Every structure is written in C-alpha cells, then in structure tokens.
C-alpha cells in the first residue's frame, strides 16, 4: 500500500534488461556512445523535432536547473506556479544554475497558472526599469504538482504571453508521460507547437533508475547546454548507462504504457476515495496523483494498517477530532497494481 | 586493445548483480534507503572514521566540486597541481560550486606538488592582504594524473603546510583504489591520518556504473554538504541505485581486487613498452596508467591495427619523421586482461 | 516643488566643506586614511558598540547586498516585507552577492511585517528539510518603504523569531536617521539591543553625496566583510572621500538635525494634503515620506504646475474621471523648505 | 616624497570645483542627470565613437569586473598578463562578476603579453572540447603594471588573435591617459581601431576622487551593462557627483594635461635613479611608474628620510648586505612636482 511517491518505485524490467545489456564490453565515454545516437534519434522522432538538442542528466532538478540557466538571464525572474517543484523543492538549484536570478511564484487553482494571473504579475514589473528583476522565463509543470494537466491550448496561451515579453518557456515534465497520455495530445502538440522552448523530459519516476532528457528545441543552444551540463558535474563518463535507460524507455512505447498504468490506478483510487464516507477530492484526478480529503479517523486507520502516503499540506495533525477532514496526497506509479489499490480501498471501506 | 581510459570499461559483474537485486520492490527515496545505511557503515569502517559524513554523487566532477565548495571560501584559491583534473578537465565546475573562487596550478614533476613548490607559491600571497585571493584549500590527486601516487608521508607534509595557512585539504581520489593498493597503506593512513579533510572516493572508473562517495571527515560539515548536493541537482530520488553500486564495490574487498588487476596490467604493459626499440617511460608507472614514449612509426602501426589510446599531450602529430619519439598515455582498467596486454605488445613487437 | 525622492537633493554644505578639506595633500588609500579612524570611533560611539565592524560603501544597494551576503547562506532565503527595497528595487543584487539564495516577500500593512505573519511563513518550510530553501536571514527596513517605522519593541519581537530559527537580522537603514528621530530611541536601542546584527546605515539620502556605513555588530565578521567589499568592487582607493562625508554627517549631530528637518516638512505636507477636498492619507506619516490620496483633478493640477512626485503604484493614470482618488508618494529631504511645502499646498488649495 | 601610488594623491582643483558646482539644487537621479548627457557626448567625441555605450562606476575594480562579465561567459577564461590587476589585485571580483569563469595569467617581459605567448597558450585548450574552460576574453592593461605601454599596433596584433578565437578584447585603462600621452596615439587608435571592445577608462588615479567610465564600443551591450551595474550595487542615486568629476576631467584636455605631468615627473625620476651609484632600471619608464633597482643601503637611507614607495616584489628585505640591489616601484601622480622629485633625488645623491 505504497502511495508516498512515484519515486519509491523501482525500474521497469525492460529498463533493467537494457542496462544489463549495455554493460557488455567497452564503450566510448561522455555521451559519444552509440546508444546515445539512437536515443537522440528516438527523441527527435517522438517530438517531430529533427533538429532538437537532446542531452541526458541524472535528476529532474538537474534538468530543470540547466534548462532555466539557458532560458533566464542572471538578472531575470522565472515565473512559475507557487507550488512548482522549482519553487518549493529544489533548495535553490535553479537560482544556483542561473547564477542569481529569482523565481516568482504565482497562485492558481489546482496547480495551474491562468493567463490572467500571469499577465497581472508581468504588469507589475514592466520591461525597461533597471531597478527590478527583468522578465526572465516562464516555467510550466505538466503534469502539475496538483495532479492536473495543462491542455496544449492552455500551454499555448501562456507561452504566447511569455514570448510577447521576450521570455522563453520551459516545461517541467517530470511526469510528462502522465500528462501526455491523459491529454491524448502528441508530444509535439504539447511542447514546441504550443510554444515550449525547453523540456525537462522525465523518465526516472516512470520506470527508470535515474535519467531525464533535456530537450531544447532551438538547436543553437546545444553547445551552451553541453558546457553547462559539464560545469554542473552532470556529464557522465560512463554515459551508456544513462543512454540505455532512455532507449528502453522510448522503445515500443514503454513510456506511454507505464504512464497509462499509473494514471489508471490513480483514477481507480480516486473514485474509491471519493466514495468513502466523508471522502472528497481536493483537485481533479487527471494523472497519477490523487489529492483527496478524508475524515481524520480514516487516515488514522489507513496509516496504522501500513498505508504509506502524505498528509498535504504536511502540517496537519492526526491528533484531534475524528471527523475533521484532512487532505492528503496519494501517488500511483507504473508498478502500482489493481490489487494494491483494491487492498487499500478495502481496508478503508471495512468497518 | 582498449587503453584510452578506464572510463570506457563497463561495470563489474558483482556491481551489476547488486543493482539488479536492489530493483526489487519499493524503497525509500533521497538517501534514506536501507542500503545507504549499510554503505555509510562500510565506508566509516573502511576508513576507521566512525563519525565521517558520507554522501554519494554520480560523477567525479560533482564530488570534487562539492568537496571544494565546502573547503574553499568564495574569495579563496585552491592550490592544485597544474595538470589536476580540477584545473584542466572540469570546465569550471569547481569555480561554479565554490561560487567564484580560483584554482591556482602549481608545476611539479610526475604530477606531484612538492612542499617546496607549495610553500613558494603560498608566500607570494601572504595572509591578510585584502587585494588578492585568499588561501582557500589544497587539493591533491591520488592516483595523480601522471599515474604516480603520493605516499602518506608526502600527503602529510603537504597538508601540514595547508593547515598552517588555515586551509583544509581535499584529495581527488578518482583512482583512490589504485593509489591505495600501490602504496599498501590503509585508507585511514592515506587520508585523515595524513591530514586529508575531504575525500572524493572514486568508484566509477574502477568497476561501477556511475557513483562516487564524498567522505568528509569532519562530521560538522554533513548538513552543509547535504544542502549543497541537493542544490547541485545531485541528490538522487531513487537513491538505492547509487547505494547498491557502492555496497557491492566495498563488499569482500572487490574495490581492492579490481584495482590490483588494473595496476598489474599497467605494470606489465609498462615493462613491455619500455623494452620496445626506442621505447621509454615518461613517468614511473605506479598505478593503472602508463606514460611511455615510442617512435612515431610504432604509434602509427599500433593505431592502424586498432590500438586505442591517446598521444599525450594531444597536439603531437602522427605525421612526420618515423623515429621521432612521441609520448602517449595508456590506461588499464579492472577489465583489462593479460591477453589484451599481450596482444597489444605482440603487435608492437612484430616486425 | 520637488517631492520625487530624497535622492534628488544635494549634499549638505557641511558635507561638501569636509570633502573639500579632505582633498588637501596625500592620504593613505583603501580605508587606512586617518579620517576613517575617526569615523569608526564616531560610529562605535554613536551606537554604544565599541567592537562593531564599520565599513563604508558608496550605495545602499551595496550595503544591503553585502550585509545579506554575510548573514544568509547560499541555500537560504531572506525574509523581508514584500515591498522592501531588496525585493523590488535592487535588480537581484542581494541574490548576486549571496551567491544564489532567495528573498521571500511577506505582506503586511503600512510596510511592516508582523510577528504573526513571519511565524506563519517560517512554519511553511520547517528546519531540516533538504528540499527547500533554508531559513537564511531577516531583513527589516526602517524607515519602511511606506514611510512608517518599527518601534524598538517591534524590531525585538521580529528578531527574536529570527534568532529562534538560527537566522541573523539585518536592518536596511537607508533612512535610518528618519526612523530614529521619529522614534526618539537611541541608535543602540533601535539596533543591537533590539537584536539587529547588521545595519545598512544610510547617509546618501540624508545630506551626503554617496556613502553608507555597513555596521556589523559581531566583530568576528569584520574580515569577511572586508573581503566581500573588495570582491564587489566597493573598496575605494581614494577612500578619504567616503570617510570625509561620513565624518561630517556624524559631527555635531548633523545627521539628526537633517532628518528632523525632512520629517518636519513631511508632517506639514501630510497635514496639508489630508485637509484638501478629497484628500486622505494612505499610510500614517511617521518619517519623511507621505503617502496620500487625492482626486485625479488635483494631481493633474499639481503636475501641470510643476509639482514633482510619483503616483504610487505607478500604473494609475491621470486620464479619466476627475474625482477618482489616486494615491501618490511625496518625499521630503533635508533640503526641503517650509516655503516649498507651503507653495505646493497653496497651489493645491487654490481655486 | 610620496611615490607609493597615484591613489594617494588628491583630486585636481578643477574636479573639486565641478563637484561643488554640481551640488546646487535638485537633480534627476540614477544617471539621468543632464551632466551625464554631456559626459556621454564628451566621451563619444573623444573616442570618435558616436554610438558607444558609456557608464560611470566608482572604482577600477568595478569597471574591470563589469566589463569582463559582459565579455566572458561563465564557462570561459580571461587571458591576461600574469601580473595584471585583475589577476593579482582584485580578490576575485572578476570571477565574481563573471559568475565563475577563470583568469589565465600569461608571462611576458615588462608587463606585456606577446602574440607568440598568447597563441601558445590558446593552443593548449583548443575550441570545442567540453572538458576545459573555453576561450573567454582577452584583457590588456594599458599602461601596464610594469609602467610600459602597448603601442596601437601591438594591441591590434593581440586582439586579432582573440577575435580569431571568438573572444572579445578588454582594455584595463586605469592609467589609460598615461599610456595615451606616452604613445601620442588618438583614443580611437588605441582602442576600437585596434580591436578593443570594452575599455575601463580610468580617472580616479589621474586627478579625480573616484570615478571610472566603462566604454563599450558595441552599443548592443548597453542595456545588459546597465542591468549588471545596478545588480553590482554600482548605480549611484546621486549620480551627478560621478558625472561632474568626469565632465571636468574631460574638459579642456585636463586629463591629458594631468597625465603629461605625471609622466614627465616619472621620466625625470627615472633618469635620476638610473644615474645613482648602483642604480638601474628594471623596466623601461614609459609612463608614470618607475621600476628601478638600487643598492640596499640607498633604500635604507631613502626610507629613513621619509621616502614613501614600495620594494617590488614586496618580499625583499631591507636587512642584509649593503650593496645588494633591491628593486622598487616609484609612482608619480598628477600632483607630483619637480620640487618633490628633486628633493628625493638630492637626498639619494647626498653623501
């Protein structure tokens, strides 16, 4: 009954098999391995972006921070949802990689920024004043931290506002596959056709050990990105082990298959939680994360029985009146099974 | 006939097996996995340092840069051999992590700094002048880039000079195992007993996929290091895959066993190359790297037959008079076999 | 009728005279001039802080940024009012000097943070989580950007919260003299006795050409500050010209005398504006800045006649219905005269 | 008998008079003062560069560091003479402003880099390798730290090499006026016509209180420079006091007149020192700095009588054998008089 995060899951068997296969013999180092050539082609193909620069890094924080260091000048601010990973969960890595800079959080229901909110915030610091931070970049998280997703048209509306202010747009796709299969959109429609300039294309949470692709749709940035990756200590000498994970992930639609599984499990869990006495959803369940509110006594029961998930926000207490509703986050991964979900729901449903 | 680098080799079977085993089921993330508890104990035990802070990162550049960011203030300079990896091969990563800072290269035969050279350089910028960079840290590479190693007494003499100037001492041990088995010293004697404060304890080159331990002998630095690692994007969510590599590496002396193999192969290769007509050694062969000079015609022959290694320095040319001696670097790894070495030497010996 | 800012005023005659006097002959450079010895003694005396480190810099942004670089680690966030100069008017200088870091703005009426608001914000990112920015420093602006001032007891309550979280407290005193004479407190009561660790002690706006003292009450930080000042390019070679301004400023209570004048003029202006038809105060007038609301037609009239001040916020328009109230900021300086204030009020009062 | 540095001298009477005049009444702040409009025009005129971006900062370190932050990427290295101010006298300010980066010192006689030495150093780290620092920028000091100057043709030869490697060229002209009057070249010939992209145009040492112009010949960099200056804390609110100094400096050829005086005094001093028993020149005296070697007993005598100058390098001792030659640096300023020089020489000549 593990719903704490999708990062507590392991790697998919296909990925482990590829890793083992890649271990055979000698291979060129630092990204010149032949597997990487295939990965590059696969990603360009997947995104219908034959010129895109494609680089692998081991963590999502590295991908986001490197992307933002390309997009945002040292005197700029990155606009993002106030609950975005880059705002609350990266200990200043984006500011470190940018070399100063700032991140400006914007409020918005269900983890999403609206064009109105973005416009209003941009208007507070108009271009051309030397005293304040300059407009730097836009960063959208898809799947959002609230488990919802931006539709391509929503992405396009926001990136258009960014572009009008001279800003590049980044997408934090730590759970990109979950957003994509939920939307039914093509990778290209969800990204560059909707105005996204740089994508953190996550794979770790969705069945890999530790690899993310940084996809930069403007190939003119390729060399700068190579240098920044090296300078961040993220260029692997035995790079084939990153390449192999990503190749397996993209082969035969494994990545989409795994994301569909986690989304399906979340949908089932969501339905079950909402149907419990006193149960309700905090955000719409659109991907692999469920935010639901349950009476305190149900949380006590679930946790006592070994259910693993987080109250969200974290500063709620299990101590107190039984019927008080407490909100919580439940995450399904590629390895979550129907049996796990049902066992958890049965536990909660039991008298 | 692969002697280009020890990073073109794969991972040892024991390491791959541990990785596969670690993939079973769910595991806590971000370094709280139980394997990491065992790794921490293993390293503390290995180094007879029960309080040491131990953290894993994926690359040697990350380990070095994080270590130096702990050791050197933003206004300091790191003293290192002028051919050290941090000087010539990290694209400014140490300066980036330090947050400015500088690295001052010091010349020295066979990749080693002498106490005299260090003292002379330190005297050029005495403490207390606000105009120049301050004494920041000392960084020693062991095994050195020239394939030699510092004896514990040599390390102690240099770190004593550093300490007298208020500087911490770092050891870049990307090939620590090779230096250690060559010296016969204990890990503790080679490091903290010789005045080393921070160690980049390499494993990638010597049989892992991508993992290095950062060992900080002053436990008071632990929390700062955790924060800096996260901020650099080097905290793995699925951390068990770093832990598992390192556990296997340290179990049953695998790391020493692998290093002995590469050192032995280098010794054999070294002897063979020096005995060739026109052959001579550029540096003493003390670890797993051979620097030898051969007549140009021999290099041509070797490379034409598929021998893979680098002329060193790189700006020598294969074109020109046949008998001109050209120096080159040959690296053996844990996976180099006697058969490979002999085949290569036979090729060179053949008429 | 100049009320745009106190930085459009000149330097007081006593300051110019001191500058001219200091120009005589040779003088030691880089802060070793004898005038600086006297300045150091004067400031230590003024603040009853015989050990304080005292350094001069040319701008308020330099003073704030250097102070925060001493107080806040690279992975920390500085808590400040959301309208503080360091948040909205320094183009990222604090983040630059800190070396990353972040500034977290906190809302609060009349430019002031309340202990409740600070506590609530601190509770969102509890100590010990490696994923988020750490508690870095507290920065209070006194006189605030809203023209109000913190009482010593209010300062003490906020710095106590900071200290409990391990944070140092900084005071941006660009208009420190104005806050001080308004409060009637002693310099020591307003700063270190109330828990302030570092003070940007402004002089530029209040009658100098360009000089601010950075006063660090913990003398152990002195050398670090010297190095950071040099590294920021703020160490003057012909330092006597900074020293001379500050000496004159502190001699015979000139600084207090000048601040009383600007505060008095603001009080008079404030009273006059509030008494106008449709006039009202936006914030209490406690120092040398008046925030008042007037009908649009009055603003049109004032500006047409050469009144110089800013609508605040800036994105209000003079075009539109006549009676709409628009808020504005009016700043008095040491050189503002009763005649100027009266002329301006007469203009507004006239039919 | 003050020859310690040109920064121990005061400001020229014309400059002080301009400062006093500028103090009259209110003036727009932050560089929008009308004096700055005139300064901009004067500098553009002086350099025959009608489009150049011109900004004022208070110190030479600020000018150099800001210039290099425009010229050199964060992953680049700046090539400079190993004794350049940015290498040995700025406590890491250039690296701080660049945001990492490195400075690579190159040896060369009499403070000057030769094209051969620059080429050789560039060849060590060819373009395109991701592992090492990239070619960042060239920085030439004119007048050099050795008191010599680069001829326009020498500057052109070096900047051509830089340009061929994609690097911009900076000139540290802390003593630009001294180099210029020595060479007889025009400001344009010495700078942009010889391939210089950014100039630190010093005024402080040559008769001002504290002001340097940063002249950027590519106007496309203007806005970036404005932002970087603000972010460094170097944008003066009461900017008129920087403008006024610079206007006076450039009016009626004052800057050239003052430099001619210091150069003339140095020539006279140089001749006198070389003619002393045991006296000789260490570097040719081409500007306002004399490097001469004298027997130890003469130094003892000079210093005992109040002669103020530095042994150079500083680690020579006055204690020891009388006849040992010790080298020293003597600097003349705009305010050095013939009487001072003669008095000093007479002292040394006396039995």
Tally of separate helices of chain A = 14
Helix-residue proportion of chain A: 40-55%
CATH architecture of the largest domain in chain A: 3-Layer(aba) Sandwich
Q: Note the main sheet of chain A.
A: 7 strands, mixed
H-E order of chain A: HHEHEHHEHEHEHHEEHHHEEHEEH
- Please report which band the strand proportion of chain A falls in: under 5%, 5-15%, 15-25%, 25-35%, 35-45% or over 45%: 15-25%
Mean pLDDT of chain A equals 97
| Beta strands of chain A, count | 11
How many discrete structural domains of chain A? 2
The H-level CATH homologous superfamily of the largest domain in chain A, spelled out, is Type I PLP-dependent aspartate aminotransferase-like (Major domain)
Q: What's the CATH class label of the largest domain in chain A?
A: Alpha Beta
Gist?
Chain A has 351 residues and is of the alpha/beta class. Chain A has helices at residues 13-22, 34-46, 60-71, 85-88, 93-98, 115-124, 152-164, 176-183, 187-190, 222-231, 240-250, 254-274, 296-304, 338-349, and strands at 53-57, 76-81, 102-106, 134-141, 168-173, 198-202, 212-216, 280-281, 289-295, 310-311, 325-331. Chains in contact: A-B, A-C, A-D, B-C, B-D, C-D.
Can you describe this structure?
Four copies of one chain form a homotetramer. The first copy, chain A, is an alpha/beta fold and 351 residues long. The first copy, chain A, has two domains: 13-252, Type I PLP-dependent aspartate aminotransferase-like (Major domain) (Aspartate Aminotransferase, domain 2, 3-Layer(aba) Sandwich); 255-349, Aspartate Aminotransferase, domain 1 (Alpha-Beta Complex), CATH 3.90.1150. Helix content of chain A is 41%, strand content 17%. Chain A has 14 helices and eleven strands. In chain A, the strands form two sheets. A seven-stranded mixed β-sheet of chain A has the order 1-7-6-5-4-2-3, with helices on both faces. In chain A, a hairpin with a 7-residue loop joins strand 8 and strand 9 (289-295). In chain A, helix 1 packs antiparallel against helix 11 and helix 2 packs parallel to helix 11 (240-250). Chain A is globular, with a radius of gyration of 21 Å. The mean pLDDT of chain A is 97. Chains in contact: A-B, A-C, A-D, B-C, B-D, C-D. Chains A and B meet through helix 1, helix 3, helix 5 and helix 10 of A and helix 1, helix 3, helix 5 and helix 10 of B.
